[in-house]
Amino acid sequence: MNTSAAVRRRDRAALLDAVFSAIADATRRSILDRLRAGELTITELAEPYAMSLNAVSKHVKTLERAGLVRREIRGREHSCRLNAARLEEAMEWISYYTTFWSERLDALEEHFTSKRKRETQ
Q: I need a surface site. Which of 22, 43, 81, 83 has the fewest CB within 10 A?
């Protein structure tokens, strides 16, 4: 394997680790859900949660490191927006394994169906 392919594989693994780690937390998933509707400030994001602005900002930083959120600073106001491309990359990875397991389960079902047919003959 050439070095650049190994680096790309390692970088992709690190990206997936960051994404799955970020979305493992219910508050961060909720923040992503709220950002689907459009850009929000940290203050707006913090409204429904019983936590400080600083705590919400830490959640946003985790989402930023995973590439799921982009923050723009305008004066004292921090606006955040969703970057769904990273979620799409994670979905591609999950989709590969969904196909893998679906094929395996189909083969298992076919095995049991043919076994039942042989037993009834």
A: 43
